[in-house]
Design a protein that fits this description.
2 copies of one chain form a homodimer.
Chain A lengths: L4 H14 L2 E10 L2 E10 L6 E7 L7 H12 L3 E4 L12 H12 L2 H17 L3 E11 L1 H11 L6 E5 L17 E7 L7 H14 L3 E6 L23 H18 L2
Parallel strand pairs in A: 3-4, 3-5, 5-6, 6-7, 7-8
Antiparallel strand pairs in A: 1-2, 2-4
Helix pairs in contact in A: 4-5
Chain lengths: ~260, ~260
Protein backbone atom coordinates (compact mmCIF):
# COMPACT_ATOMS: atom_id res chain seq x y z
CA UNK A 1 0.00 0.00 0.00
CA UNK A 2 2.88 2.35 0.80
CA UNK A 3 5.21 3.16 -2.02
CA UNK A 4 8.15 1.88 0.04
CA UNK A 5 7.03 -1.66 -0.67
CA UNK A 6 8.11 -1.37 -4.26
CA UNK A 7 11.82 -0.66 -3.86
CA UNK A 8 12.03 -3.20 -1.03
CA UNK A 9 10.47 -5.90 -3.18
CA UNK A 10 12.66 -4.95 -6.07
CA UNK A 11 15.83 -5.19 -4.00
CA UNK A 12 14.66 -8.42 -2.46
CA UNK A 13 14.14 -9.99 -5.88
CA UNK A 14 17.61 -8.85 -6.87
CA UNK A 15 19.13 -10.46 -3.77
CA UNK A 16 17.31 -13.73 -4.30
CA UNK A 17 18.53 -13.80 -7.86
CA UNK A 18 22.14 -13.63 -6.80
CA UNK A 19 21.87 -16.02 -3.82
CA UNK A 20 24.31 -18.91 -3.97
CA UNK A 21 23.06 -21.73 -1.82
CA UNK A 22 25.62 -24.25 -0.68
CA UNK A 23 24.80 -27.59 1.00
CA UNK A 24 27.40 -29.62 2.83
CA UNK A 25 27.01 -33.03 4.47
CA UNK A 26 28.18 -33.14 8.08
CA UNK A 27 29.04 -36.37 9.85
CA UNK A 28 29.05 -36.41 13.62
CA UNK A 29 28.70 -39.04 16.32
CA UNK A 30 26.79 -40.15 19.35
CA UNK A 31 29.22 -42.61 20.89
CA UNK A 32 29.69 -45.24 18.19
CA UNK A 33 26.62 -44.21 16.25
CA UNK A 34 27.35 -42.17 13.15
CA UNK A 35 24.88 -39.36 12.39
CA UNK A 36 24.67 -37.54 9.09
CA UNK A 37 23.21 -34.04 8.90
CA UNK A 38 23.76 -31.18 6.50
CA UNK A 39 24.47 -27.49 6.65
CA UNK A 40 22.94 -25.08 4.12
CA UNK A 41 23.76 -21.42 3.67
CA UNK A 42 23.97 -18.59 1.16
CA UNK A 43 27.62 -17.87 0.39
CA UNK A 44 26.78 -14.36 -0.81
CA UNK A 45 25.56 -13.23 2.63
CA UNK A 46 28.45 -11.55 4.41
CA UNK A 47 29.37 -12.13 8.04
CA UNK A 48 28.03 -14.27 10.83
CA UNK A 49 24.30 -14.82 11.03
CA UNK A 50 21.65 -16.68 13.04
CA UNK A 51 21.58 -20.45 12.80
CA UNK A 52 18.40 -22.51 12.56
CA UNK A 53 18.26 -26.18 13.48
CA UNK A 54 15.73 -28.19 11.45
CA UNK A 55 14.46 -31.45 12.89
CA UNK A 56 12.94 -33.93 10.48
CA UNK A 57 9.61 -35.73 10.31
CA UNK A 58 9.23 -39.42 11.10
CA UNK A 59 11.07 -40.62 7.98
CA UNK A 60 14.32 -38.86 8.85
CA UNK A 61 15.95 -36.22 6.65
CA UNK A 62 14.26 -36.12 3.24
CA UNK A 63 14.09 -33.69 0.33
CA UNK A 64 11.38 -31.87 2.30
CA UNK A 65 13.70 -30.88 5.16
CA UNK A 66 16.46 -30.04 2.68
CA UNK A 67 14.10 -27.75 0.76
CA UNK A 68 13.17 -25.98 4.01
CA UNK A 69 16.90 -25.54 4.70
CA UNK A 70 17.31 -23.84 1.33
CA UNK A 71 14.32 -21.60 2.01
CA UNK A 72 15.89 -20.56 5.32
CA UNK A 73 19.27 -20.02 3.68
CA UNK A 74 17.59 -17.71 1.16
CA UNK A 75 16.23 -15.72 4.10
CA UNK A 76 19.84 -15.25 5.20
CA UNK A 77 20.08 -17.92 7.89
CA UNK A 78 22.41 -20.87 8.25
CA UNK A 79 20.26 -24.00 8.40
CA UNK A 80 21.37 -27.33 9.84
CA UNK A 81 19.35 -30.48 9.19
CA UNK A 82 19.66 -32.61 12.32
CA UNK A 83 19.87 -36.37 12.02
CA UNK A 84 18.17 -37.93 15.01
CA UNK A 85 18.12 -41.51 13.68
CA UNK A 86 21.65 -42.20 12.44
CA UNK A 87 23.39 -42.34 9.05
CA UNK A 88 21.39 -44.33 6.53
CA UNK A 89 18.44 -44.87 8.87
CA UNK A 90 15.72 -43.50 6.61
CA UNK A 91 12.53 -45.55 7.13
CA UNK A 92 10.58 -45.77 3.88
CA UNK A 93 7.17 -47.04 4.97
CA UNK A 94 4.80 -45.47 7.49
CA UNK A 95 5.11 -48.63 9.58
CA UNK A 96 8.89 -48.40 9.78
CA UNK A 97 8.73 -44.64 10.30
CA UNK A 98 6.24 -45.04 13.14
CA UNK A 99 8.41 -47.66 14.81
CA UNK A 100 11.60 -45.59 14.49
CA UNK A 101 9.99 -42.35 15.68
CA UNK A 102 8.32 -44.31 18.50
CA UNK A 103 11.70 -45.53 19.73
CA UNK A 104 12.77 -41.93 20.35
CA UNK A 105 9.41 -40.71 21.61
CA UNK A 106 9.57 -43.46 24.22
CA UNK A 107 13.14 -42.58 25.18
CA UNK A 108 13.11 -38.83 25.69
CA UNK A 109 16.58 -38.88 27.24
CA UNK A 110 18.01 -40.33 24.02
CA UNK A 111 15.94 -37.92 21.93
CA UNK A 112 17.26 -34.95 23.91
CA UNK A 113 20.81 -36.21 23.58
CA UNK A 114 20.55 -36.57 19.81
CA UNK A 115 18.97 -33.17 19.25
CA UNK A 116 21.49 -31.46 21.51
CA UNK A 117 24.34 -33.06 19.56
CA UNK A 118 22.88 -31.62 16.37
CA UNK A 119 22.55 -28.23 18.03
CA UNK A 120 26.24 -28.32 18.92
CA UNK A 121 27.06 -29.05 15.27
CA UNK A 122 25.00 -26.07 14.12
CA UNK A 123 26.63 -23.79 16.66
CA UNK A 124 30.10 -24.79 15.44
CA UNK A 125 29.49 -23.96 11.76
CA UNK A 126 31.72 -21.05 10.72
CA UNK A 127 29.08 -18.61 9.42
CA UNK A 128 26.86 -19.08 12.50
CA UNK A 129 26.60 -16.50 15.23
CA UNK A 130 26.52 -18.93 18.18
CA UNK A 131 24.55 -16.47 20.29
CA UNK A 132 21.66 -16.36 17.81
CA UNK A 133 20.25 -19.86 17.49
CA UNK A 134 16.75 -21.22 17.03
CA UNK A 135 15.33 -24.66 16.30
CA UNK A 136 12.29 -25.76 14.37
CA UNK A 137 10.80 -29.09 13.51
CA UNK A 138 7.97 -30.76 11.68
CA UNK A 139 5.71 -33.46 13.18
CA UNK A 140 8.21 -35.74 15.01
CA UNK A 141 10.67 -32.85 14.69
CA UNK A 142 8.17 -30.51 16.36
CA UNK A 143 7.97 -32.85 19.31
CA UNK A 144 11.77 -32.96 19.29
CA UNK A 145 12.35 -29.19 19.43
CA UNK A 146 9.92 -28.89 22.34
CA UNK A 147 11.92 -31.67 23.99
CA UNK A 148 15.08 -29.66 23.19
CA UNK A 149 13.53 -26.74 25.08
CA UNK A 150 12.63 -29.03 27.99
CA UNK A 151 16.26 -30.15 28.13
CA UNK A 152 17.15 -26.58 29.09
CA UNK A 153 19.03 -25.88 25.85
CA UNK A 154 20.22 -22.31 25.36
CA UNK A 155 18.43 -21.14 22.21
CA UNK A 156 16.56 -17.94 21.42
CA UNK A 157 13.44 -19.79 20.34
CA UNK A 158 11.94 -23.06 19.17
CA UNK A 159 9.12 -23.52 16.64
CA UNK A 160 7.00 -26.65 16.33
CA UNK A 161 5.07 -27.22 13.09
CA UNK A 162 2.28 -29.76 13.71
CA UNK A 163 4.32 -31.49 16.39
CA UNK A 164 3.08 -33.67 19.21
CA UNK A 165 3.00 -31.80 22.51
CA UNK A 166 2.75 -34.53 25.12
CA UNK A 167 5.36 -34.93 27.84
CA UNK A 168 6.10 -37.85 30.13
CA UNK A 169 7.69 -35.37 32.57
CA UNK A 170 5.76 -32.09 32.64
CA UNK A 171 7.91 -30.82 35.49
CA UNK A 172 10.69 -30.41 32.92
CA UNK A 173 8.77 -27.39 31.62
CA UNK A 174 10.54 -25.53 34.42
CA UNK A 175 13.87 -26.07 32.65
CA UNK A 176 12.70 -24.17 29.56
CA UNK A 177 14.65 -20.96 29.01
CA UNK A 178 13.77 -20.28 25.40
CA UNK A 179 10.73 -18.78 23.69
CA UNK A 180 8.29 -21.32 22.32
CA UNK A 181 6.03 -21.00 19.27
CA UNK A 182 3.60 -23.82 18.49
CA UNK A 183 2.00 -23.90 15.03
CA UNK A 184 -0.92 -26.25 15.22
CA UNK A 185 -3.65 -27.58 12.95
CA UNK A 186 -6.94 -26.91 14.75
CA UNK A 187 -8.32 -30.18 13.38
CA UNK A 188 -5.18 -32.29 13.94
CA UNK A 189 -6.44 -35.66 15.24
CA UNK A 190 -2.95 -36.68 16.37
CA UNK A 191 -2.80 -33.93 18.98
CA UNK A 192 -5.75 -34.74 21.25
CA UNK A 193 -7.45 -32.12 23.43
CA UNK A 194 -5.98 -33.65 26.58
CA UNK A 195 -2.44 -33.11 25.23
CA UNK A 196 -3.24 -29.49 24.39
CA UNK A 197 -4.62 -28.94 27.88
CA UNK A 198 -1.62 -30.63 29.52
CA UNK A 199 0.82 -28.65 27.37
CA UNK A 200 -0.94 -25.37 28.20
CA UNK A 201 -0.80 -26.23 31.90
CA UNK A 202 2.89 -27.17 31.64
CA UNK A 203 3.78 -23.88 29.93
CA UNK A 204 1.64 -21.83 32.32
CA UNK A 205 2.95 -23.52 35.46
CA UNK A 206 6.51 -23.08 34.22
CA UNK A 207 6.18 -19.39 33.32
CA UNK A 208 7.38 -20.04 29.78
CA UNK A 209 7.17 -17.33 27.09
CA UNK A 210 5.00 -19.33 24.71
CA UNK A 211 2.46 -18.83 21.94
CA UNK A 212 0.27 -21.16 19.95
CA UNK A 213 -1.39 -20.52 16.61
CA UNK A 214 -4.27 -22.82 15.67
CA UNK A 215 -5.08 -22.93 11.97
CA UNK A 216 -8.73 -23.65 11.25
CA UNK A 217 -9.37 -26.40 8.72
CA UNK A 218 -5.82 -27.75 9.05
CA UNK A 219 -4.92 -31.26 10.15
CA UNK A 220 -1.59 -32.99 10.77
CA UNK A 221 1.26 -32.36 8.27
CA UNK A 222 -0.35 -29.14 7.06
CA UNK A 223 2.97 -27.73 5.89
CA UNK A 224 4.16 -30.85 4.06
CA UNK A 225 3.51 -30.50 0.35
CA UNK A 226 4.08 -34.24 -0.08
CA UNK A 227 1.13 -35.04 2.13
CA UNK A 228 -1.63 -35.54 -0.42
CA UNK A 229 -5.14 -36.64 0.26
CA UNK A 230 -8.19 -35.40 2.12
CA UNK A 231 -8.35 -34.04 5.67
CA UNK A 232 -10.30 -37.14 6.62
CA UNK A 233 -7.05 -39.11 6.51
CA UNK A 234 -5.84 -36.99 9.42
CA UNK A 235 -2.75 -35.64 7.64
CA UNK A 236 -2.91 -33.33 4.62
CA UNK A 237 -1.17 -30.36 3.08
CA UNK A 238 -3.04 -27.07 3.62
CA UNK A 239 -1.79 -24.16 1.56
CA UNK A 240 -3.10 -21.26 3.70
CA UNK A 241 -1.84 -22.88 6.91
CA UNK A 242 1.55 -23.56 5.28
CA UNK A 243 1.88 -19.97 4.08
CA UNK A 244 0.65 -18.43 7.31
CA UNK A 245 2.80 -20.61 9.54
CA UNK A 246 5.90 -19.75 7.51
CA UNK A 247 5.10 -16.03 7.91
CA UNK A 248 4.53 -16.53 11.64
CA UNK A 249 7.90 -18.23 11.90
CA UNK A 250 9.59 -15.35 10.07
CA UNK A 251 7.90 -12.86 12.40
CA UNK A 252 9.05 -14.90 15.42
CA UNK A 253 12.64 -14.95 14.13
CA UNK A 254 12.49 -11.20 13.49
CA UNK A 255 11.57 -10.76 17.15
CA UNK A 256 14.07 -13.14 18.73
CA UNK A 257 17.00 -12.07 16.55
CA UNK A 258 16.37 -8.34 16.56
CA UNK B 1 19.89 -9.18 8.40
CA UNK B 2 19.69 -8.42 4.72
CA UNK B 3 20.89 -5.04 3.59
CA UNK B 4 17.47 -4.33 2.06
CA UNK B 5 16.10 -3.72 5.53
CA UNK B 6 18.04 -0.51 5.86
CA UNK B 7 16.65 1.49 2.93
CA UNK B 8 13.15 0.19 3.72
CA UNK B 9 13.38 1.35 7.32
CA UNK B 10 14.84 4.64 6.26
CA UNK B 11 12.04 5.30 3.79
CA UNK B 12 9.47 4.19 6.32
CA UNK B 13 10.76 6.65 8.90
CA UNK B 14 10.62 9.38 6.30
CA UNK B 15 7.01 8.55 5.49
CA UNK B 16 5.95 8.51 9.12
CA UNK B 17 7.57 11.88 9.63
CA UNK B 18 5.46 13.46 6.95
CA UNK B 19 2.14 11.76 7.85
CA UNK B 20 -0.71 14.17 8.48
CA UNK B 21 -3.36 12.47 10.52
CA UNK B 22 -6.84 13.93 10.38
CA UNK B 23 -9.72 12.97 12.70
CA UNK B 24 -13.32 13.86 11.94
CA UNK B 25 -16.40 13.21 14.06
CA UNK B 26 -19.20 11.44 12.19
CA UNK B 27 -22.80 11.51 13.39
CA UNK B 28 -25.14 8.83 12.13
CA UNK B 29 -28.38 7.30 13.27
CA UNK B 30 -30.15 4.11 14.23
CA UNK B 31 -33.80 5.22 13.96
CA UNK B 32 -34.04 8.05 16.48
CA UNK B 33 -30.86 7.14 18.27
CA UNK B 34 -27.91 9.37 17.40
CA UNK B 35 -24.55 7.61 17.19
CA UNK B 36 -21.22 9.41 17.14
CA UNK B 37 -18.19 7.77 15.59
CA UNK B 38 -15.04 9.16 14.04
CA UNK B 39 -12.98 8.67 10.93
CA UNK B 40 -9.18 8.93 10.98
CA UNK B 41 -6.84 8.94 8.01
CA UNK B 42 -3.52 10.21 6.73
CA UNK B 43 -4.12 13.01 4.25
CA UNK B 44 -0.70 12.50 2.67
CA UNK B 45 -1.55 8.99 1.45
CA UNK B 46 -2.78 9.23 -2.14
CA UNK B 47 -5.79 7.41 -3.50
CA UNK B 48 -8.34 5.04 -2.11
CA UNK B 49 -7.23 2.55 0.48
CA UNK B 50 -8.56 -0.21 2.75
CA UNK B 51 -10.87 0.78 5.56
CA UNK B 52 -10.72 -0.68 9.07
CA UNK B 53 -13.65 -0.58 11.45
CA UNK B 54 -12.66 -0.35 15.13
CA UNK B 55 -15.16 -1.47 17.74
CA UNK B 56 -14.66 -0.19 21.27
CA UNK B 57 -14.32 -1.85 24.65
CA UNK B 58 -17.09 -1.83 27.24
CA UNK B 59 -16.74 1.88 28.05
CA UNK B 60 -17.51 3.01 24.50
CA UNK B 61 -15.11 5.05 22.35
CA UNK B 62 -12.22 6.34 24.47
CA UNK B 63 -8.75 7.74 23.84
CA UNK B 64 -7.62 4.13 23.52
CA UNK B 65 -9.69 3.40 20.42
CA UNK B 66 -8.79 6.81 18.97
CA UNK B 67 -5.09 6.07 19.44
CA UNK B 68 -5.53 2.73 17.64
CA UNK B 69 -7.26 4.61 14.81
CA UNK B 70 -4.23 6.89 14.48
CA UNK B 71 -1.89 3.90 14.48
CA UNK B 72 -3.91 2.35 11.66
CA UNK B 73 -3.99 5.64 9.76
CA UNK B 74 -0.19 5.78 10.00
CA UNK B 75 -0.10 2.33 8.41
CA UNK B 76 -2.02 3.83 5.49
CA UNK B 77 -5.55 2.69 6.34
CA UNK B 78 -8.73 4.66 6.90
CA UNK B 79 -9.97 3.85 10.41
CA UNK B 80 -13.51 4.32 11.61
CA UNK B 81 -14.34 4.19 15.32
CA UNK B 82 -17.80 2.65 15.58
CA UNK B 83 -20.20 3.88 18.25
CA UNK B 84 -22.35 0.98 19.37
CA UNK B 85 -23.86 2.70 22.43
CA UNK B 86 -25.07 6.11 21.17
CA UNK B 87 -23.82 9.68 21.36
CA UNK B 88 -22.73 10.62 24.87
CA UNK B 89 -23.25 7.12 26.26
CA UNK B 90 -19.80 6.61 27.72
CA UNK B 91 -20.09 4.59 30.94
CA UNK B 92 -17.41 5.66 33.41
CA UNK B 93 -17.46 2.93 36.04
CA UNK B 94 -16.93 -0.81 35.50
CA UNK B 95 -20.46 -1.35 36.87
CA UNK B 96 -22.06 0.95 34.32
CA UNK B 97 -19.83 -0.38 31.54
CA UNK B 98 -20.76 -3.96 32.39
CA UNK B 99 -24.45 -3.12 32.37
CA UNK B 100 -24.26 -1.26 29.07
CA UNK B 101 -22.16 -3.92 27.33
CA UNK B 102 -24.46 -6.57 28.78
CA UNK B 103 -27.48 -4.92 27.18
CA UNK B 104 -25.96 -5.50 23.74
CA UNK B 105 -24.47 -8.90 24.51
CA UNK B 106 -27.96 -10.01 25.48
CA UNK B 107 -29.50 -8.55 22.33
CA UNK B 108 -27.32 -9.79 19.49
CA UNK B 109 -29.79 -8.57 16.87
CA UNK B 110 -29.40 -5.00 18.13
CA UNK B 111 -25.63 -5.44 18.40
CA UNK B 112 -25.44 -6.64 14.79
CA UNK B 113 -27.60 -3.76 13.62
CA UNK B 114 -25.39 -1.19 15.33
CA UNK B 115 -22.13 -2.62 14.05
CA UNK B 116 -23.48 -2.94 10.51
CA UNK B 117 -24.56 0.71 10.58
CA UNK B 118 -21.02 1.67 11.53
CA UNK B 119 -19.66 -0.52 8.76
CA UNK B 120 -21.85 1.33 6.25
CA UNK B 121 -20.43 4.64 7.51
CA UNK B 122 -16.88 3.39 7.03
CA UNK B 123 -17.64 2.14 3.56
CA UNK B 124 -19.03 5.54 2.55
CA UNK B 125 -15.96 7.56 3.59
CA UNK B 126 -14.35 9.10 0.50
CA UNK B 127 -10.80 7.73 0.81
CA UNK B 128 -12.06 4.18 1.46
CA UNK B 129 -11.92 1.46 -1.16
CA UNK B 130 -15.31 -0.14 -0.36
CA UNK B 131 -14.12 -3.50 -1.62
CA UNK B 132 -11.28 -3.68 0.90
CA UNK B 133 -12.79 -3.57 4.36
CA UNK B 134 -11.91 -5.26 7.63
CA UNK B 135 -13.13 -4.90 11.21
CA UNK B 136 -11.35 -5.28 14.51
CA UNK B 137 -12.40 -4.88 18.09
CA UNK B 138 -11.17 -5.07 21.64
CA UNK B 139 -12.91 -7.02 24.44
CA UNK B 140 -16.61 -6.14 23.92
CA UNK B 141 -15.58 -4.96 20.46
CA UNK B 142 -13.97 -8.32 19.76
CA UNK B 143 -17.25 -10.03 20.55
CA UNK B 144 -18.92 -7.47 18.30
CA UNK B 145 -16.77 -8.05 15.21
CA UNK B 146 -17.31 -11.82 15.50
CA UNK B 147 -21.03 -11.00 15.68
CA UNK B 148 -20.56 -8.82 12.59
CA UNK B 149 -19.13 -11.86 10.81
CA UNK B 150 -22.04 -14.00 12.02
CA UNK B 151 -24.44 -11.44 10.55
CA UNK B 152 -23.04 -12.35 7.11
CA UNK B 153 -21.40 -8.95 6.56
CA UNK B 154 -19.24 -8.64 3.46
CA UNK B 155 -15.76 -7.86 4.79
CA UNK B 156 -12.35 -9.26 3.91
CA UNK B 157 -11.58 -10.14 7.52
CA UNK B 158 -12.37 -9.56 11.18
CA UNK B 159 -9.91 -9.50 14.08
CA UNK B 160 -10.87 -9.98 17.72
CA UNK B 161 -8.45 -8.82 20.41
CA UNK B 162 -9.31 -10.52 23.73
CA UNK B 163 -12.99 -10.68 22.81
CA UNK B 164 -15.61 -13.02 24.17
CA UNK B 165 -16.37 -15.85 21.74
CA UNK B 166 -19.69 -17.25 22.97
CA UNK B 167 -22.73 -17.35 20.72
CA UNK B 168 -26.39 -17.81 21.57
CA UNK B 169 -26.94 -19.08 18.01
CA UNK B 170 -23.96 -21.16 16.82
CA UNK B 171 -25.81 -22.06 13.62
CA UNK B 172 -25.14 -18.47 12.50
CA UNK B 173 -21.54 -19.51 11.97
CA UNK B 174 -22.77 -20.78 8.61
CA UNK B 175 -23.46 -17.18 7.55
CA UNK B 176 -19.82 -16.20 7.95
CA UNK B 177 -18.18 -15.26 4.65
CA UNK B 178 -15.14 -13.42 5.95
CA UNK B 179 -11.79 -14.55 7.31
CA UNK B 180 -11.58 -14.62 11.10
CA UNK B 181 -8.53 -14.01 13.28
CA UNK B 182 -8.88 -14.42 17.05
CA UNK B 183 -6.12 -13.00 19.26
CA UNK B 184 -6.55 -14.52 22.67
CA UNK B 185 -4.85 -14.40 26.07
CA UNK B 186 -4.11 -18.01 26.98
CA UNK B 187 -4.84 -17.19 30.63
CA UNK B 188 -7.94 -15.03 30.03
CA UNK B 189 -10.41 -16.02 32.75
CA UNK B 190 -13.28 -14.29 30.96
CA UNK B 191 -13.14 -16.68 28.02
CA UNK B 192 -13.80 -20.07 29.63
CA UNK B 193 -12.66 -23.35 28.08
CA UNK B 194 -16.23 -24.27 27.19
CA UNK B 195 -16.57 -21.10 25.10
CA UNK B 196 -13.31 -21.86 23.29
CA UNK B 197 -14.52 -25.38 22.55
CA UNK B 198 -17.92 -24.17 21.35
CA UNK B 199 -16.33 -21.48 19.17
CA UNK B 200 -13.93 -23.99 17.64
CA UNK B 201 -16.83 -26.33 16.90
CA UNK B 202 -18.87 -23.47 15.39
CA UNK B 203 -16.03 -22.43 13.08
CA UNK B 204 -15.20 -26.02 12.14
CA UNK B 205 -18.82 -27.00 11.46
CA UNK B 206 -19.30 -23.86 9.38
CA UNK B 207 -16.17 -24.30 7.27
CA UNK B 208 -14.92 -20.83 8.21
CA UNK B 209 -11.40 -19.67 7.30
CA UNK B 210 -10.32 -18.97 10.87
CA UNK B 211 -7.20 -18.78 13.01
CA UNK B 212 -6.57 -18.28 16.69
CA UNK B 213 -3.40 -17.15 18.39
CA UNK B 214 -3.10 -17.86 22.10
CA UNK B 215 -0.56 -15.73 23.95
CA UNK B 216 0.98 -17.47 26.95
CA UNK B 217 0.97 -15.44 30.16
CA UNK B 218 -1.64 -13.02 28.83
CA UNK B 219 -5.03 -12.41 30.42
CA UNK B 220 -7.99 -10.23 29.40
CA UNK B 221 -7.27 -6.72 28.06
CA UNK B 222 -3.69 -7.68 27.15
CA UNK B 223 -3.47 -4.95 24.50
CA UNK B 224 -4.91 -2.14 26.63
CA UNK B 225 -2.10 -0.02 28.02
CA UNK B 226 -4.58 1.53 30.49
CA UNK B 227 -5.19 -1.82 32.14
CA UNK B 228 -2.76 -1.73 35.05
CA UNK B 229 -2.40 -4.26 37.78
CA UNK B 230 -1.43 -7.90 38.11
CA UNK B 231 -2.64 -10.83 36.03
CA UNK B 232 -4.44 -12.10 39.12
CA UNK B 233 -7.07 -9.42 38.56
CA UNK B 234 -7.97 -11.17 35.30
CA UNK B 235 -7.32 -8.16 33.06
CA UNK B 236 -3.86 -6.67 32.54
CA UNK B 237 -1.69 -5.10 29.87
CA UNK B 238 0.95 -7.48 28.50
CA UNK B 239 3.61 -5.85 26.35
CA UNK B 240 4.76 -8.91 24.35
CA UNK B 241 1.17 -9.99 23.64
CA UNK B 242 0.28 -6.44 22.61
CA UNK B 243 3.25 -6.17 20.26
CA UNK B 244 2.83 -9.65 18.81
CA UNK B 245 -0.92 -9.32 18.28
CA UNK B 246 -0.42 -6.02 16.47
CA UNK B 247 2.13 -7.68 14.18
CA UNK B 248 -0.24 -10.61 13.61
CA UNK B 249 -2.99 -8.15 12.65
CA UNK B 250 -0.66 -6.41 10.19
CA UNK B 251 0.27 -9.76 8.66
CA UNK B 252 -3.42 -10.68 8.38
CA UNK B 253 -4.21 -7.37 6.66
CA UNK B 254 -1.28 -7.87 4.29
CA UNK B 255 -2.83 -11.19 3.29
CA UNK B 256 -6.45 -10.11 2.92
CA UNK B 257 -5.66 -6.85 1.12
CA UNK B 258 -2.93 -8.15 -1.17
Amino acid sequence: MKSILLPALFLSAALVARAEIRVQTVEYKDGDTVLEGSVTWDTTVPGNRPGILIVHQWKGITDYEQKRAEMLAKLGYVAFCADIYGKGVRPASPQEAGATAGKYKNDRALLRQRVNLALAQLRAQPPVDPKRIAALGYCFGGTTVIELARSGADTAGVVSFHGGLDSPSPADGKKIRTKVLVLHGADDPFVPAKDLAAFTAEMRDSGVDWQMISYGGAVHSFSDWNSKGPNSGGAAYNEPADRRSWEAMKQFFAEIFR
